[in-house]
Amino acid sequence: MSSNGGWNPYLAGALVGILAVMSVVVTTQILGKGSYLGASTTFVRGAGLIEKQIMPENVTQNDYFVRTKIKVDWQMMFVIGIFCGALLASLSDGSFRKEKIPPMWRERFPYGVWCRAVAAFGGGVIAIFGARLAGGCPSGHGLSGVMQLSLSGLVAMAGFMVGGIVIARAIYGGREYPWT
Amino acid sequence: MDLVLGLITGVFFGFLLQKGRVLRFEKQIGFLRLIDMTIIKFMLSAILVGMVGIYLFLDLGMIQLNVKSTVLGAQIIGGLMFGVGWAIFGYCPGTAVGALGEGRIHALWGIFGMLVGAALYAEAYPELSETLLKWGVVGKVTLPELLQVNHWVVIGGFFFVVMAFFVWCEKNRL
Asked: B78–A119: do the CB atoms touch at under 8 Å?
Protein backbone atom coordinates (compact mmCIF):
# COMPACT_ATOMS: atom_id res chain seq x y z
CA MET A 1 0.00 0.00 0.00
CA SER A 2 1.34 3.40 -0.89
CA SER A 3 0.18 6.73 0.52
CA ASN A 4 -2.58 7.23 -2.06
CA GLY A 5 -4.21 3.91 -1.18
CA GLY A 6 -3.12 2.29 -4.43
CA TRP A 7 -1.20 -0.92 -4.93
CA ASN A 8 2.54 -1.06 -5.13
CA PRO A 9 3.36 -0.13 -8.75
CA TYR A 10 5.86 -2.99 -9.09
CA LEU A 11 3.19 -5.49 -8.05
CA ALA A 12 0.40 -4.02 -10.19
CA GLY A 13 2.82 -3.86 -13.14
CA ALA A 14 3.95 -7.46 -12.70
CA LEU A 15 0.29 -8.54 -12.71
CA VAL A 16 -0.17 -6.68 -16.01
CA GLY A 17 2.79 -8.66 -17.34
CA ILE A 18 1.06 -11.91 -16.41
CA LEU A 19 -2.19 -10.64 -17.96
CA ALA A 20 -0.41 -9.76 -21.22
CA VAL A 21 1.12 -13.25 -21.47
CA MET A 22 -2.14 -14.98 -20.53
CA SER A 23 -3.95 -12.97 -23.19
CA VAL A 24 -1.57 -14.14 -25.92
CA VAL A 25 -1.66 -17.78 -24.75
CA VAL A 26 -5.45 -17.93 -24.38
CA THR A 27 -6.23 -16.15 -27.66
CA THR A 28 -3.73 -18.35 -29.50
CA GLN A 29 -5.44 -21.45 -28.09
CA ILE A 30 -9.02 -20.30 -28.68
CA LEU A 31 -8.85 -17.96 -31.67
CA GLY A 32 -5.76 -19.35 -33.39
CA LYS A 33 -4.00 -15.98 -33.33
CA GLY A 34 -2.48 -14.31 -30.29
CA SER A 35 -3.85 -10.93 -29.25
CA TYR A 36 -1.15 -8.64 -27.91
CA LEU A 37 -2.27 -5.61 -25.90
CA GLY A 38 -2.67 -2.36 -27.81
CA ALA A 39 -4.99 0.64 -27.88
CA SER A 40 -4.32 3.23 -30.56
CA THR A 41 -5.78 1.36 -33.58
CA THR A 42 -9.13 1.51 -31.80
CA PHE A 43 -9.20 5.28 -32.32
CA VAL A 44 -8.81 4.72 -36.06
CA ARG A 45 -11.67 2.22 -36.02
CA GLY A 46 -13.70 4.55 -33.80
CA ALA A 47 -13.10 7.46 -36.18
CA GLY A 48 -13.97 5.21 -39.14
CA LEU A 49 -17.22 4.03 -37.56
CA ILE A 50 -18.27 7.63 -36.88
CA GLU A 51 -17.21 8.89 -40.32
CA LYS A 52 -19.15 6.05 -41.93
CA GLN A 53 -22.37 7.60 -40.59
CA ILE A 54 -21.58 10.98 -42.14
CA MET A 55 -19.48 10.35 -45.26
CA PRO A 56 -19.51 6.60 -45.99
CA GLU A 57 -17.60 6.85 -49.28
CA ASN A 58 -14.74 8.59 -47.49
CA VAL A 59 -14.23 5.49 -45.39
CA THR A 60 -14.66 2.88 -48.11
CA GLN A 61 -12.25 4.70 -50.42
CA ASN A 62 -9.54 5.57 -47.92
CA ASP A 63 -6.52 3.23 -48.04
CA TYR A 64 -5.86 3.49 -44.34
CA PHE A 65 -9.44 2.75 -43.28
CA VAL A 66 -9.57 -0.17 -45.73
CA ARG A 67 -6.29 -1.59 -44.41
CA THR A 68 -7.36 -1.19 -40.80
CA LYS A 69 -10.75 -2.91 -41.37
CA ILE A 70 -13.32 -0.71 -39.71
CA LYS A 71 -15.31 -2.92 -37.32
CA VAL A 72 -15.75 -3.67 -33.64
CA ASP A 73 -12.89 -6.05 -32.83
CA TRP A 74 -10.95 -7.56 -29.94
CA GLN A 75 -8.98 -4.39 -29.31
CA MET A 76 -12.00 -2.09 -29.30
CA MET A 77 -13.65 -4.28 -26.68
CA PHE A 78 -10.34 -4.28 -24.80
CA VAL A 79 -10.34 -0.47 -24.73
CA ILE A 80 -13.97 -0.40 -23.56
CA GLY A 81 -12.91 -2.89 -20.90
CA ILE A 82 -10.20 -0.51 -19.66
CA PHE A 83 -12.91 2.05 -18.96
CA CYS A 84 -15.05 -0.51 -17.09
CA GLY A 85 -12.09 -1.90 -15.12
CA ALA A 86 -10.93 1.53 -14.01
CA LEU A 87 -14.49 2.46 -13.04
CA LEU A 88 -14.87 -0.74 -10.97
CA ALA A 89 -11.49 -0.34 -9.29
CA SER A 90 -12.05 3.31 -8.39
CA LEU A 91 -15.56 2.68 -7.04
CA SER A 92 -14.33 -0.30 -5.01
CA ASP A 93 -11.81 1.75 -3.02
CA GLY A 94 -13.50 5.16 -3.08
CA SER A 95 -10.89 6.78 -5.31
CA PHE A 96 -13.43 7.65 -8.03
CA ARG A 97 -13.50 11.40 -8.27
CA LYS A 98 -15.18 13.70 -10.77
CA GLU A 99 -12.49 16.08 -11.90
CA LYS A 100 -12.83 18.78 -14.57
CA ILE A 101 -9.27 20.09 -14.52
CA PRO A 102 -6.19 18.17 -13.32
CA PRO A 103 -4.72 19.95 -10.24
CA MET A 104 -1.21 20.12 -11.72
CA TRP A 105 -2.57 21.71 -14.89
CA ARG A 106 -4.70 24.24 -12.96
CA GLU A 107 -1.71 25.37 -10.95
CA ARG A 108 0.23 26.09 -14.14
CA PHE A 109 -2.68 27.38 -16.25
CA PRO A 110 -5.35 28.88 -13.96
CA TYR A 111 -7.61 29.86 -16.86
CA GLY A 112 -10.53 27.52 -16.44
CA VAL A 113 -12.04 24.57 -18.24
CA TRP A 114 -11.84 25.85 -21.81
CA CYS A 115 -8.10 26.35 -21.74
CA ARG A 116 -7.70 22.75 -20.56
CA ALA A 117 -10.22 21.47 -23.10
CA VAL A 118 -8.50 23.10 -26.07
CA ALA A 119 -5.03 21.95 -25.00
CA ALA A 120 -6.17 18.40 -24.27
CA PHE A 121 -7.99 18.22 -27.61
CA GLY A 122 -4.94 19.49 -29.50
CA GLY A 123 -2.61 17.23 -27.54
CA GLY A 124 -4.86 14.27 -28.36
CA VAL A 125 -4.78 15.07 -32.08
CA ILE A 126 -0.97 15.27 -32.09
CA ALA A 127 -0.54 12.18 -29.91
CA ILE A 128 -2.71 9.84 -31.98
CA PHE A 129 -1.26 11.12 -35.26
CA GLY A 130 2.21 10.36 -33.93
CA ALA A 131 1.13 6.99 -32.57
CA ARG A 132 -0.39 5.89 -35.88
CA LEU A 133 2.68 7.10 -37.76
CA ALA A 134 4.91 5.15 -35.36
CA GLY A 135 2.55 2.17 -35.63
CA GLY A 136 1.57 2.02 -31.98
CA CYS A 137 1.26 3.69 -28.58
CA PRO A 138 2.80 2.93 -25.17
CA SER A 139 0.62 -0.19 -25.02
CA GLY A 140 1.27 -1.65 -28.48
CA HIS A 141 4.87 -0.51 -28.86
CA GLY A 142 5.80 0.07 -25.23
CA LEU A 143 4.35 -2.96 -23.48
CA SER A 144 3.77 -5.50 -26.25
CA GLY A 145 6.64 -4.43 -28.49
CA VAL A 146 9.38 -4.13 -25.88
CA MET A 147 8.13 -7.32 -24.21
CA GLN A 148 8.90 -9.13 -27.47
CA LEU A 149 12.22 -7.25 -27.69
CA SER A 150 11.14 -5.81 -31.03
CA LEU A 151 13.34 -3.08 -32.47
CA SER A 152 10.30 -1.02 -33.51
CA GLY A 153 8.98 -1.05 -29.94
CA LEU A 154 12.30 0.06 -28.47
CA VAL A 155 12.81 2.87 -31.00
CA ALA A 156 9.22 4.13 -30.66
CA MET A 157 9.34 4.02 -26.87
CA ALA A 158 12.56 6.03 -26.86
CA GLY A 159 10.85 8.59 -29.12
CA PHE A 160 7.76 8.78 -26.85
CA MET A 161 9.92 9.49 -23.83
CA VAL A 162 12.29 11.98 -25.42
CA GLY A 163 9.44 13.99 -26.99
CA GLY A 164 7.36 13.82 -23.81
CA ILE A 165 10.14 14.70 -21.37
CA VAL A 166 11.39 17.67 -23.39
CA ILE A 167 7.93 19.19 -23.77
CA ALA A 168 6.70 18.43 -20.23
CA ARG A 169 9.80 20.00 -18.72
CA ALA A 170 9.43 22.99 -21.03
CA ILE A 171 5.81 23.45 -19.91
CA TYR A 172 6.05 22.71 -16.20
CA GLY A 173 9.73 22.70 -15.43
CA GLY A 174 11.19 19.83 -13.47
CA ARG A 175 13.83 19.52 -10.91
CA GLU A 176 17.47 19.17 -11.95
CA TYR A 177 18.00 16.19 -14.21
CA PRO A 178 18.69 13.29 -11.83
CA TRP A 179 22.13 12.65 -13.32
CA THR A 180 23.42 16.22 -12.96
CA MET B 1 -15.72 -15.00 -28.68
CA ASP B 2 -12.84 -12.65 -29.48
CA LEU B 3 -15.03 -9.72 -28.40
CA VAL B 4 -15.74 -11.30 -25.02
CA LEU B 5 -12.05 -12.09 -24.48
CA GLY B 6 -11.12 -8.53 -25.42
CA LEU B 7 -13.59 -7.10 -22.94
CA ILE B 8 -12.45 -9.36 -20.08
CA THR B 9 -8.78 -8.63 -20.73
CA GLY B 10 -9.54 -4.92 -20.86
CA VAL B 11 -11.42 -4.98 -17.55
CA PHE B 12 -8.45 -6.64 -15.82
CA PHE B 13 -6.03 -4.21 -17.48
CA GLY B 14 -8.09 -1.16 -16.52
CA PHE B 15 -8.48 -2.48 -12.97
CA LEU B 16 -4.71 -2.88 -12.58
CA LEU B 17 -3.93 0.48 -14.17
CA GLN B 18 -6.28 2.14 -11.71
CA LYS B 19 -4.99 0.22 -8.66
CA GLY B 20 -1.42 1.03 -9.67
CA ARG B 21 -2.58 4.68 -9.73
CA VAL B 22 -0.93 5.20 -13.11
CA LEU B 23 -4.06 6.76 -14.64
CA ARG B 24 -3.51 10.01 -12.78
CA PHE B 25 -2.56 13.06 -14.83
CA GLU B 26 -0.08 13.92 -12.05
CA LYS B 27 1.61 10.51 -12.40
CA GLN B 28 1.89 10.73 -16.19
CA ILE B 29 3.23 14.28 -16.24
CA GLY B 30 5.22 13.59 -13.06
CA PHE B 31 7.19 10.98 -14.98
CA LEU B 32 7.71 13.25 -18.00
CA ARG B 33 8.99 15.96 -15.62
CA LEU B 34 11.21 13.24 -14.10
CA ILE B 35 9.91 13.88 -10.59
CA ASP B 36 7.79 10.73 -10.09
CA MET B 37 8.78 7.34 -11.54
CA THR B 38 5.56 5.46 -10.66
CA ILE B 39 4.41 4.84 -14.22
CA ILE B 40 7.79 3.68 -15.43
CA LYS B 41 8.15 1.29 -12.46
CA PHE B 42 4.74 -0.10 -13.36
CA MET B 43 5.54 -0.35 -17.05
CA LEU B 44 8.98 -1.92 -16.71
CA SER B 45 7.66 -4.47 -14.20
CA ALA B 46 4.97 -5.44 -16.70
CA ILE B 47 7.50 -5.64 -19.52
CA LEU B 48 9.97 -7.73 -17.53
CA VAL B 49 7.40 -10.30 -16.40
CA GLY B 50 5.78 -10.30 -19.83
CA MET B 51 9.09 -10.77 -21.60
CA VAL B 52 9.99 -13.86 -19.58
CA GLY B 53 6.52 -15.30 -20.09
CA ILE B 54 6.30 -14.58 -23.81
CA TYR B 55 9.71 -16.10 -24.59
CA LEU B 56 9.03 -19.08 -22.32
CA PHE B 57 5.80 -19.93 -24.16
CA LEU B 58 7.51 -19.20 -27.47
CA ASP B 59 10.24 -21.73 -26.64
CA LEU B 60 7.51 -24.22 -25.73
CA GLY B 61 5.99 -23.64 -29.18
CA MET B 62 2.67 -22.54 -27.73
CA ILE B 63 2.55 -19.00 -29.12
CA GLN B 64 4.05 -16.86 -31.86
CA LEU B 65 5.52 -13.41 -31.73
CA ASN B 66 3.69 -10.57 -33.44
CA VAL B 67 6.40 -8.01 -34.14
CA LYS B 68 5.59 -4.66 -35.74
CA SER B 69 7.77 -3.72 -38.68
CA THR B 70 10.58 -1.27 -37.96
CA VAL B 71 10.59 1.85 -40.12
CA LEU B 72 13.07 4.22 -38.52
CA GLY B 73 11.62 7.42 -40.04
CA ALA B 74 8.11 6.54 -38.93
CA GLN B 75 9.01 5.39 -35.43
CA ILE B 76 11.40 8.24 -34.69
CA ILE B 77 9.25 11.08 -36.09
CA GLY B 78 5.97 9.47 -35.01
CA GLY B 79 7.43 8.60 -31.62
CA LEU B 80 8.63 12.15 -30.94
CA MET B 81 5.33 13.53 -32.14
CA PHE B 82 3.41 11.21 -29.84
CA GLY B 83 5.60 12.36 -26.96
CA VAL B 84 4.74 16.01 -27.64
CA GLY B 85 1.02 15.24 -27.66
CA TRP B 86 1.35 13.05 -24.55
CA ALA B 87 3.01 15.89 -22.61
CA ILE B 88 0.29 18.36 -23.61
CA PHE B 89 -2.71 16.06 -23.13
CA GLY B 90 -1.29 14.18 -20.16
CA TYR B 91 -2.45 10.72 -21.19
CA CYS B 92 -1.70 8.02 -23.72
CA PRO B 93 -4.62 6.35 -25.57
CA GLY B 94 -5.15 3.50 -23.09
CA THR B 95 -4.76 5.58 -19.93
CA ALA B 96 -7.06 8.30 -21.30
CA VAL B 97 -9.95 5.85 -21.42
CA GLY B 98 -9.04 4.51 -17.98
CA ALA B 99 -8.79 8.01 -16.50
CA LEU B 100 -12.29 8.74 -17.77
CA GLY B 101 -13.40 5.57 -15.97
CA GLU B 102 -12.14 6.87 -12.62
CA GLY B 103 -14.04 10.12 -13.10
CA ARG B 104 -11.42 12.33 -14.73
CA ILE B 105 -13.88 13.73 -17.26
CA HIS B 106 -11.28 16.12 -18.64
CA ALA B 107 -9.76 13.11 -20.41
CA LEU B 108 -12.79 13.24 -22.70
CA TRP B 109 -11.43 16.30 -24.55
CA GLY B 110 -8.32 14.41 -25.51
CA ILE B 111 -10.32 11.33 -26.48
CA PHE B 112 -12.29 13.53 -28.93
CA GLY B 113 -8.96 14.90 -30.12
CA MET B 114 -7.63 11.40 -30.69
CA LEU B 115 -10.68 10.43 -32.77
CA VAL B 116 -10.23 13.55 -34.91
CA GLY B 117 -6.46 12.96 -35.11
CA ALA B 118 -7.02 9.39 -36.29
CA ALA B 119 -9.34 10.62 -39.05
CA LEU B 120 -6.73 13.21 -40.07
CA TYR B 121 -4.08 10.51 -40.16
CA ALA B 122 -6.25 8.42 -42.48
CA GLU B 123 -6.46 11.43 -44.82
CA ALA B 124 -2.69 11.96 -44.69
CA TYR B 125 -1.89 8.27 -45.09
CA PRO B 126 -1.65 8.10 -48.92
CA GLU B 127 0.97 10.86 -48.81
CA LEU B 128 2.83 9.44 -45.80
CA SER B 129 2.94 5.92 -47.20
CA GLU B 130 5.02 7.25 -50.09
CA THR B 131 7.38 9.27 -47.89
CA LEU B 132 7.97 8.90 -44.15
CA LEU B 133 6.71 5.33 -44.03
CA LYS B 134 9.45 4.36 -46.50
CA TRP B 135 12.35 6.01 -44.68
CA GLY B 136 14.71 3.52 -43.07
CA VAL B 137 12.74 0.30 -43.46
CA VAL B 138 14.38 -2.44 -41.36
CA GLY B 139 11.43 -4.85 -41.25
CA LYS B 140 10.07 -7.13 -38.54
CA VAL B 141 13.12 -7.67 -36.41
CA THR B 142 13.84 -8.26 -32.72
CA LEU B 143 16.89 -7.27 -30.72
CA PRO B 144 18.17 -10.88 -30.30
CA GLU B 145 17.91 -11.36 -34.10
CA LEU B 146 19.75 -8.12 -34.70
CA LEU B 147 22.52 -8.95 -32.23
CA GLN B 148 22.51 -12.61 -33.31
CA VAL B 149 22.47 -13.93 -29.76
CA ASN B 150 20.08 -16.19 -27.86
CA HIS B 151 17.04 -14.27 -26.60
CA TRP B 152 17.69 -15.33 -22.99
CA VAL B 153 21.01 -13.49 -23.09
CA VAL B 154 19.21 -10.27 -24.04
CA ILE B 155 16.49 -10.88 -21.45
CA GLY B 156 19.18 -11.40 -18.79
CA GLY B 157 20.85 -8.13 -19.75
CA PHE B 158 17.52 -6.31 -19.77
CA PHE B 159 16.66 -7.73 -16.34
CA PHE B 160 19.97 -6.51 -14.91
CA VAL B 161 19.58 -2.97 -16.28
CA VAL B 162 15.97 -2.66 -15.12
CA MET B 163 16.81 -3.93 -11.63
CA ALA B 164 19.68 -1.43 -11.36
CA PHE B 165 17.23 1.31 -12.43
CA PHE B 166 14.68 0.23 -9.79
CA VAL B 167 17.34 0.29 -7.07
CA TRP B 168 18.41 3.75 -8.24
CA CYS B 169 14.78 4.97 -8.15
CA GLU B 170 14.24 3.73 -4.60
CA LYS B 171 17.56 5.19 -3.41
CA ASN B 172 16.63 8.58 -4.81
CA ARG B 173 13.00 8.28 -3.60
CA LEU B 174 11.66 8.90 -7.09
From this structure: no
The Cα B68–Cα A5 span in angstroms is: 37
CB contact under 8 A, B68 and A131: no
For residue A166, the model assigns a pLDDT of 97
CA distances from A152 to A24, A130, B107 (A): 19, 14, 28
Residues in chain A: 180
> pTM value?
0.96
Q: Residue B81 and residue A140: Cβ atoms within 8 Å?
A: no
Neighbouring CB atoms inside 10 A of B163's CB total: 12
Q: Which of residues 58-77 of B touch A (CB under 8 A)?
A: 62-72, 74-77
Tell me: the pLDDT tens digits for A99-158? 999 999 999 999 999 999 999 999 999 999 999 999 999 999 999 999 999 999 999 999
Burial of residue A166 (number of CB atoms within 10 Å: 0-12, 13-18, 19+): middle
B135 part of contact set with chain A, CB < 8 Å: no
A1 vs B145, residue with greater confidence: B145
DSSP string, B5-42: HHHHHHHHHHHHHHHTTTT-HHHHHHHHTTS--HHHHH
Q: Is A121 on the interface with B (CB under 8 A)?
A: yes
Check: complex ipTM more than 0.85: yes
